[in-house]
């Protein structure tokens, strides 16, 4: 079956512009996660959606970052007024969200490489 | 806050050598532990995970990992590596009931034919 898909695969933008990154999770997965990977860093958690519950936004680095998930499926991560330090690979993952306890396997997409000039 | 340390940044081995990649975490409570792998040009994928039961966990492609609670470690092992194991390996942890993963910085493994 289809995996997690993300678009665009690459995005180059100018400092100060807004960008939107899209994630299509695996069909039926109720949980969706955003992470980012900066050069030389591990993956850093950004935000987590589970079903209709309020998202866990505890990893968002500033109020320039926001995300929404429409209809419990597709998610969009928006970065406003981009800065050079926002350059990174943004990864989306999804899981069934049924195991509880945090032991669900997260399935990752290919990522969006964002470059802010 | 949780943290994960992967002490080996780049490991180079010859085919058929044995592999052990270190992973230590900092969190005193109940944890779930994961190893993910990213092959060149591919997505991150799960190698194996531990959440309860036997602390020796077997995963795909002949990999295994042992959870040693007293050492806060979850080292990854493979008795005989192949060229196709060339990849980046990430250790990750979350606390029980908390879905968000904390990742280490990764270990790049290069296997020389």
Describe this structure in words.
By secondary structure, chain A is mainly β. Chain A has no helices and 10 strands. Chain A has a single domain, classed as Immunoglobulins (Immunoglobulin-like, Sandwich). The N and C termini of chain A lie far apart (37 Å). Chain B has one domain: Immunoglobulin-like, CATH 2.60.40.10. In chain B, 35% of the residues are buried. The model of chain B has no long low-confidence stretch (mean pLDDT 94). Classes of the chains: A mainly beta (117), B mainly beta (113). The interface between A and B is medium-sized, with 32 and 25 residues.
Number of strands of chain A: 10
- Class by alpha and beta content of chain B: mainly beta
Low-confidence stretches of chain A: none
Biggest beta sheet summary of chain A: 6 strands, mixed
Salient structural properties:
heterodimer, A: 117 residues, mainly beta, Immunoglobulin-like, six-stranded mixed sheet, 10 strands, B: mainly beta, four-stranded antiparallel sheet, 12 strands
List the helices and strands and how they pair.
The complex is a heterodimer of chains A (117) and B (113).
Chain A: E1 5-7, E2 10-13, E3 19-24, E4 31-37, E5 43-50, E6 65-69, E7 75-79, E8 88-95, E9 107-108, E10 112-116
Parallel strand pairs in A: 2-10
Antiparallel strand pairs in A: 1-3, 3-7, 4-5, 4-8, 6-7, 8-9, 8-10
Chain B: E1 3-5, E2 10-14, E3 19-21, E4 24-26, E5 31-38, E6 44-50, E7 56-58, E8 64-68, E9 73-78, E10 87-95, E11 102-103, E12 107-112
Question: Could you provide a short overview of the structure?
Answer:
The complex is a heterodimer of chains A (117) and B (113). Chain A is mainly β and 117 residues long.
């Amino acid at each position: 079956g289809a995996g997690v898909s993300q678009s665009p695969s690459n995005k180059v933008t100018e400092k100060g512009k807004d960008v939107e990154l899209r994630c299509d999770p695996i069909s039926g997965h109720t949980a969706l996660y955003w992470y980012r990977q900066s050069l030389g860093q591990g993956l850093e958690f950004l935000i987590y959606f589970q079903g209709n519950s309020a998202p866990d936004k505890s990893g968002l680095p500033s109020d320039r970052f926001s995300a929404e998930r429409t209809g419990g499926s597709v998610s969009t991560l928006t970065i406003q007024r981009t800065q050079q330090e926002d350059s990174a690979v943004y990864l989306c993952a999804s899981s069934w969200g049924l195991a509880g306890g945090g032991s669900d396997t997260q399935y990752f997409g290919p990522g969006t490489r964002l470059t802010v000039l | 806050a949780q943290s994960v340390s992967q002490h080996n940044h780049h490991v180079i081995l010859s085919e058929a050598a044995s592999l052990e990649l270190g992973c230590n975490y900092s969190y005193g409570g109940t944890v779930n532990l994961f190893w993910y792998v990213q092959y060149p040009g591919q997505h991150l994928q799960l190698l194996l995970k531990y959440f309860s039961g036997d602390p020796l966990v077997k995963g795909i492609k002949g990999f295994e990992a042992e959870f040693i609670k007293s050492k806060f470690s979850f080292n990854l092992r493979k008795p005989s590596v192949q060229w196709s194991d060339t990849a980046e390996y990430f250790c990750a942890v979350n606390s029980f009931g908390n879905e968000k993963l904390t990742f280490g910085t990764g270990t790049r493994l290069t296997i020389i034919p």
